[in-house]
Amino acid sequence: MDRSLATLLRSLQTSEYTEDALRLLPTATNLLSRLSNPLNITLLTSHLLSHDALFPQPIEISPSRQIFSVFYTALLRLIEDKQDPARERLRSHLSVEDWVKAVVKGADERSPRWRHTLLLGGILLAFQSRQFEELRPDLRNKLEAALVTATNLALQQKDAEVNCELSVIFVVNHTFPILSDFHQSQLQYDLLLPLLIDATYFSKEGLEHGYWVGAIDNDIRQSSPQKFNWPSASISFKKLAEIKKRSLLTALGSLSRLTAHCIDNVHDRMLIVHCTNRIGDFARTLATAWRQNKLSEIDTREEALYLDQETISATLPALLQLLRDTMFAAVITLRSVLGRLLCDPILGADNIAPGLAMQTLHILRDTYFIAHRFGLVSSSQYTFVNFTAIDVLSRYQPQSENLLETIRPAELGRIPAHPLDRMRDLFFLNTAEHFTLTVSSRMSQELLFNAAAPYVDPRGDPRLGEILEAAHSVMLAILAAPQNGEVATKNVPFYVETLLQSFPMPLTARQFRLAIKSIVRLAAPPSPIAVSMPLMQAIILDLLRERMEQASEDLLPPNPDLSLESQQPLSERANLLLAIIDCLSSLPVPLLEEWLPLTAELLQKVKNPSQKQQCQQCLWAALSDGEMDVDRAATCVAWWTSRGGREHVMLGEQPEEQDYMMSGALRFDNKL
Ligand SMILES: *[C@@H]1O[C@H](CO)[C@@H](O)[C@H](O)[C@H]1NC(C)=O
Ligand SMILES: *[C@@H]1O[C@H](CO)[C@@H](O)[C@H](O)[C@H]1NC(C)=O
After folding, report:
1. Between β-strands 228-229 and 221-222, what pairing exists: parallel, antiparallel or unpaired?
2. Separation CA 201–CA 188 (nearest Å)
């Protein structure tokens, strides 16, 4: 036997401690790549795989990675040696293929299956990274098949064996992308999926339930009378830094794509439900842990006020980045869950689908503080998950009501002090808006209406911007739902009054116009509102006109939520006129005939020429852009062409009384 091999094997045998054994790996790698006798290669491999000190308990990724590297590196070196004439004397005489066969033979009965995956995976990855062309397809095929078999057996035996999951996941993650489609499909996804979820969200090499997010609280100190500090020297920050370096978490994206692939392919659908619930557990714990953390008590917009420089620029962003990646991993997984639900009759069945949709919405709610901060809610994956979950659940009334009851604001009728609770209210309102057609009108009144009410208070803080808008959307959705005729009738007067008092503060012009337009449309016959309050539309228009006549022509401050280029500054008065113009397309013809000349008259009351011109353009657009139905469009054409509308609008000339009398004889001239 080769002398250096004999020495190495002896050292290996006598190294009982992991540290000592691991220290021999570079020598082993070197030797392995240069041996020429296949029996020696097999012998060394077999010794490496069966030497328990090299595989310390509990199994962690790092030592497994080192064994993986032995085979990976040895093969790379063998290939390099072959290509380098200078290494003629040193190199192994075996062909690459014979060498590989000899190594693989060392994966024998003396070592458990999961360790074989390290060897097979290392070799396959080395071939891949070299793009080694001489590898015969049948050998590659055999290697892939052997890897898949070893992986499946390791997964099946894992209870009998030690917990080898992390090691197996490490190998699968690295080799999965290079396996052929056929071999990918041979993996036992049913065994792999739960392991992946556990490893990512719960294991000690993954996110550890997210408990550490709460522990950060202990390290947050007051650093000046007004500011707080989370030092980078603290235990909790060091823990975060260590977590972020974990190999499972540095490549969370690839791991979650693998998880998603498992979800697409598992046979047992209940595993999908189970895994979604597990992610739900994680999200709930994370949300609780974040609440325990003082950092959550600071409104995002006030961080600069209450946090010191180190926290703002170093420690907090590091935490948020990991939370964002985590959130995104969960969304990628959920996208597969819902994608499968949509086309799978078992998951889509009535006994499973609503539960999955509810769990999904709970996860989105628990992680909303992250998604919202980073604007992830507008990413296509998030939108798909959110939209599909809402769409599926809203087909089931009892479950929809159940969800809304569970996520309702803790205290109705008040705006909570904790930013996290306001965030939850925002989630609630954004979600509830889409259930107004599903839930009973009683729930609309008692829960949804009352939850939105404090946010539509005209004395509201304009900084609530987004949530205020969400509350108005809920109001409008409630009023619009056909089953809510009674609720609507009861609340419209209150709501209109609120709207009028809410402009120009706290509602922005855009929000105000949208709300007014929607209400006037809802009040159009033959809606329940129109039946019980036939004058509602006329009343609203009159109120707007009254307000307009007293309103100021000073420009309103620009809306901070919109880019400056996209908005032209207008006054309160001009905006009230625009609100009236917006409504024209939903007025019944007689009321429209009355309001066209009134609008033209109001237009003359806008004194500022540029604002007046903008209003003119809007009126022109409203009359001509096709939002009007045929009858209304005809009315507008007639007014514009034959009844002096054009002159009234363009020149401010009142039509002569007799012109008006001639209006019976209409000439149709569709220039509009
Ligand atoms: C998973 O595999 C990818 C390559 O496919 C790699 O970039 C990533 O680091 C791996 N992750 C882990 C946890 O090993
Ligand atoms: C979910 O989607 C709906 C409909 O697109 C949207 O209105 C709502 O704001 C979204 N929810 C969240 C939490 O982003």
Report:
1. antiparallel
2. 21
How many CB atoms are closer than 10 A to CB 646? 17
Start-to-end CA span in the chain (Å): 99
Q: Is the pLDDT of residue 394 over 70?
A: yes
Q: The tokens of 540 are what?
A: 């609203």
DSSP letter at 562 equals S
What pLDDT was estimated at residue 326?
Answer: 96
Q: What is the CATH number of the domain that holds 601?
A: 1.25.40
Span from the CA of 575 to the centroid of ligand 2 (angstroms): 28
C-alpha distances in angstroms, 382 versus 287, 372, 470, 635?
A: 18, 11, 18, 45
Q: Which residue's C-alpha comes closest to atom 4 of ligand 1?
A: 174
Q: Is the pLDDT of residue 566 over 70?
A: no
Rg (CA), the chain: 35
Residue 514 lies in a domain: yes
- Give the residue from 171, 187, 203 where a domain finishes: 187
Task: Please report where in the chains the tokens 């842990």 appear, as a residue.
Answer: 289
**Which residue, of 152, 187, 222, is where some domain finishes?**
187
pLDDT tens digits, one per residue of 480-499: 998 888 888 888 988 999 99
Q: What percent of the chain has pLDDT over 70?
A: 94
- Whether residue 43 is contained in a domain is answered as yes
CA of 334 to the centre of ligand 1 (A): 21
pLDDT band at 80 (very low <50, low <70, confident <90, very high): confident
> Who lines ligand 1 at CB under 6 A?
170, 173-174, 177, 247-248, 251, 254-255
Which residue is closest in CA terms to ligand 2's atom 8? 430
Listing DSSP states for 419-435 in one string gives: HHHHHHHHHHHHHHGGG
Whether residue 126 is contained in a domain is answered as yes
pLDDT at 662 over 60: no
Q: How far is the CA of 493 from the centre of ligand 2 (A)?
A: 28
- Which atom from ligand 1 is nearest to the alpha carbon of 65? 14
Ligand 1, atom 14, lies closest to the CA of: 170
Span from the CA of 255 to the centroid of ligand 1 (angstroms): 7
Given a contact cutoff of 8 angstroms between Cβ atoms, the answer to whether 122 and 103 are in contact is no
Segment 247-265 shows an average pLDDT of 91
Q: List the domain range (segments joined by +) for residue 35.
A: 3-187
The structural domain count of the chain equals 2
Query: Mind spelling out the 3-state secondary structure of 477-490?
Result: HHHHCHHHHHHHHH
DSSP string, 220-265: -EE-SSS-EE--TTSHHHHHHHHHHH-HHHHTHHHHHHHHHHHHHH
Percent of the chain with pLDDT over 90: 61
Question: Hey, what amino acid is at 528?
Answer: P
- 416 falls within a domain: no
